[in-house]
Amino acid sequence: MKNIGLIGCGNIAETYFRAQDYFNNIKFIACADKFPEASKKCAHKYKIKSLSVDEILNDTDVDIILNLTIPQAHFEVSKLALEAGKHVYSEKPMSITYDQAKELLELANKKNLYFGNAPDTFLGGGGQVARQFVDKGEIGQILTGNFIFAFPGVQEFHPNPESWFQSGGGPVIDMGPYFFTALVNLLGPAKNVRARGKKFSNQREYLVGPKKGRSFDIEISTSVMCDVEFANETIVQGFISFDIQNHA
Fold first, then answer.
1. d(Cα 75, Cα 225) in Å, to the nearest integer?
2. 0.85 cut: is pTM over it?
3. What is residue 142's DSSP assignment?
4. Helical axes 176-187 vs 125-135, angle rounded to 10°
5. Which pLDDT band, with edges at 50, 70 and 90, does 242 fall under?
6. Fewest 10 Å CB contacts: which of 36, 54, 210, 228?
7. 121-241 adopts what CATH topology?
């Protein structure tokens, strides 16, 4: 049985707490958040310890740190956890730059620690069946492909969506990992990427939660188009957007 300490008690935390019921080899024992009230609320609901970030990193009973902070904090929190001798599983993205991600993996290897990262959806039934078809050559040579994910944006359901519209956020960071992870699993590594993006307004409105009706600033492109060329010569086009209100 491995004990988990969770850092970041936001919206996604509940999903992970529910997931522990499906496993018999992990157990949440503590949580932490930069906002102590969020940590205390989470701890009370799930009957675990509420600690500060420093306390949870130094808790000898914690084997694995689950990093559910905002994307811009993933690198810092994961690095602190590795330096504290903890295995890490982080929500997507691993970091907001390639160099930061590389540093985390090198640190994990140096300290002989495991580092896992969302998404793991490519391990599900659909992804595995698709991989089986590709590996057996049952659909022939894959030449091209495309993917689209378009919806109004995380402000539709998230009470604190600001970080997804600031530097280090955006639709590629939010939803792109699902598609790119699946594609790399099926087609292998990418060798060339081209992309362009655009934002169509400077502000958005909170639609749920205590800030409903107020506005927040947008710093990043909210729609992105890309071409990805893989090492096996397959070319895939993608479109990911926070701007599409309705689908025909």
1. 26
2. yes
3. -
4. 30
5. very high
6. 210
7. Dihydrodipicolinate Reductase; domain 2 (3.30.360)
